[in-house]
Hints:
The structure holds three protein chains of three kinds. Chain A is of the alpha+beta class. Helix content of chain A is 28%, strand content 31%. Chain A has helices at 41-49, 91-101, 106-119, 135-148, 165-182, 193-199, 217-222, 227-233, 295-300, and strands spanning 3-12, 15-25, 30-34, 56-61, 64-65, 76-79, 153-157, 185-190, 202-207, 210-215, 237-239, 242-244, 249-252, 260-270, 273-280, 289-294, 308-313, 323-324. By secondary structure, chain B is mainly alpha-helical. Chain B has 14 helices and one strand, in the order H-H-H-H-E-H-H-H-H-H-H-H-H-H-H. By secondary structure, chain C is mostly helical. The radius of gyration of chain C is 22 Å and the shape is globular. Chain C has a single domain, classed as MetI-like (MetI-like fold), CATH 1.10.3720.10. The longest helix of chain C has 34 residues, at 76-109. Classes of the chains: A alpha+beta, B mainly alpha, C mainly alpha. At the B-C interface, helix 1, helix 2, helix 4, strand 1 and helix 5 of B face strand 1, helix 2, helix 4, helix 5 and helix 6 of C. Strand 1 (96-97) of chain B pairs parallel with strand 1 (29-30) of chain C, so a sheet runs across the interface.
Amino acid sequence: xxxxxxxxxxxxxxxxxxxxxxxxxxxxxxxxxxxxxxxxxxxxxxxxxxxxxxxxxxxxxxxxxxxxxxxxxxxxxxxxxxxxxxxxxxxxxxxxxxxxxxxxxxxxxxxxxxxxxxxxxxxxxxxxxxxxxxxxxxxxxxxxxxxxxxxxxxxxxxxxxxxxxxxxxxxxxxxxxxxxxxxxxxxxxxxxxxxxxxxxxxxxxxxxxxxxxxxxxxxxxxxxxxxxxxxxxxxxxxxxxxxxxxxxxxxxxxxxxxxxxxxxxxxxxxxxxxxxxxxxxxxxxxxxxxxxxxxxxxxxxxxxxxxxxxxxxxxxxxxxxxxxxxxxxxx
Amino acid sequence: xxxxxxxxxxxxxxxxxxxxxxxxxxxxxxxxxxxxxxxxxxxxxxxxxxxxxxxxxxxxxxxxxxxxxxxxxxxxxxxxxxxxxxxxxxxxxxxxxxxxxxxxxxxxxxxxxxxxxxxxxxxxxxxxxxxxxxxxxxxxxxxxxxxxxxxxxxxxxxxxxxxxxxxxxxxxxxxxxxxxxxxxxxxxxxxxxxxxxxxxxxxxxxxxxxxxxxxxxxxxxxxxxxxxxxxxxxxxxxxxxxxxxxxxxxxxxxxxxxxxxxxxxxxxxxxxxxxxxxxxxxxxx
Amino acid sequence: xxxxxxxxxxxxxxxxxxxxxxxxxxxxxxxxxxxxxxxxxxxxxxxxxxxxxxxxxxxxxxxxxxxxxxxxxxxxxxxxxxxxxxxxxxxxxxxxxxxxxxxxxxxxxxxxxxxxxxxxxxxxxxxxxxxxxxxxxxxxxxxxxxxxxxxxxxxxxxxxxxxxxxxxxxxxxxxxxxxxxxxxxxxxxxxxxxxxxxxxxxxxxxxxxxxxxxxxxxxxxxxxxxxxxxxxxxxxxxxxxxxxxxxxxxxxxxxxxxxxxxxxxxxxxxxxxxxxxxxxxxxxxxxxx
Lengths: 331, 285, 289
């Protein structure tokens, strides 16, 4: 195990940020801490880094009890959401910082900085100031800076949160590839389920200071342990009092076994996808059921506003794993 | 940000050229001309009304040289103390929580709104050799405060105390703690973090605060007047010299009052101008 | 940004103390060994330099009992001095509110050659030694005035001196706020059909109000505590041009420390009120963003 967290708790005043967290993170793994903001995931990351002190519990890094160790002695690379670039230092000196405070030789520092800047594709910007870089470039610089100290674990706090959608996506792919190359144990915090599903080997869902579920992206998506996990990992809608994914609904324009009758009250096309709001005959007046299907499918079934339809959940595994409703359909 | 401001400013200029704009501009320039520009120019003129020679002569009198030396020494100590104290207290106020923090942060500004005369009186009450609360103890230990340079330093440090702090605190707030945390996570000790990250980030604000502090220290008058006694060649600072010379008759005394005042004003204005032009338009990006 | 905010941003926007859970508290941590020691040293120095001496003033003021205190304050000469000081400071503050805002406006929104010079001009009264400030005003409004006026040793001199030394306060507090006020907001108001007057009174003025108030408070506090610029200028005539600080000084020089402390206590209380008011204003500004 690279990181072992045992019974960690943390409160701010009367706000419980973390409540009895137990978590093991394997060496070389890329783990996402996923959850809504204010759920405690960033606090957990900062406790691992030593930037925050846990009220109770222990943190072990590489088999060493780090609970009382100050941040500067943990050998942990930390990447901040807003880059935390040292504004008065050039890109190269930003990356060199950790090595300089470790009093490495000039030659060694220069070589290492050179390698890292090449790794993050910033070689030609070595002598610029952070203010002359774009957001994405600054974040890559911050990453190189964190990697420079050869950290035993790399921690990233909402690393792409401040970037625009396109750069975000590029950096996401790039981080995945970088991890496959460098193989350092990596933990990153995100509130974006797509980001977590796409990049991570393993996802830890955290909400209200508690771990909701730990598992691979597929496990979490296909076998959510709770309504919360299910609704947080993707769109959901409610059919007959159960949570289902809108694309996991079978829809036909004639009755079939186990299906509920309804009427399409709204038809929206978004690119290749069609979204239908279906009002159930038996539950008139309640929130309509959301159904998504491909455009080809929708036109094959001749669906449009006002069509009469029948709905039934389908499951990839063939059996109905309806979960009792506890969570309203998210807006 | 600077470019954004001038950009919007440019938009405004092209968009509205109202008479009101002209009225305001003329009003403001006239007001400043009569209140500041013309009087200051007249002092410069009066200083050199009899040519350069009497000015140089009066400035080379031993009393005048002594007064300026004393002023510089006092200002040096007051600024040094205020700088160290200012950095420390600013870091404490911004980066830490402790009981009474809010009260302290409000009280820090107090010296700016207390009359220099009250400052002098208050120091007199505590540090006077005969009657002061602590004065006699200190005197017995061999340290005379009132009517001596230490008292002048105290008075000067008192009146200029908040200036460094007021400049640094907003910058400390603005830069936030992330850079410092990043430095720590990269292995920097607290001292390394301060020297390599925090200090460079606040350097312009600090320099500006130091210069303001210096200008205020060189020019302090009321508080110093009470605690120093104003004895020529012993405790007379430059501002006290200006007062004394102006009160005495004869063109030579008037010239030396004006000459000393001119030098004081010159130092203040030069210091301010240098720092305002040195300071980058926007420290952050 | 233009020249600077010359030491006068009293509306110090502090982050509201922790309320929102984790994010806020990261800004500040509680004290540990070294920082606690630092705080101790800082507090000791601050007490020795400021708190103990100011307390001594209040203690000394009460040394003669309530009757002596009241007698010192109600002497006709002291009353006249206090009236003159407070009255003139008030008047000067009113003028500063108008002129200071106008100057800030011109500095931020107007553009003409030589504007940068005005920036330095605004700072001069702050940088200039007060005794020199008196000399400066004397040269234009004294006996040898090229204007042909002689206001030396009159109340007009007190008024001018206060006006001079308090010039930067409102300007320097309003200026940064005005700089940050987005023109888009004004444009939005205009696009919604607001006249320029309505835009000013409904949109701009409310945003400037806290800055103007705190500038005005500082200017008032500076006014009532002014001394140096009056020394050469006002003649310090009892019942006529003698201000509170001069009154205190003459008590000190006459070795009547209790009377001096009594008058000083009034000035101290006003200074404290101003400080508290500024604190309240800055917190309100911080809360409303």
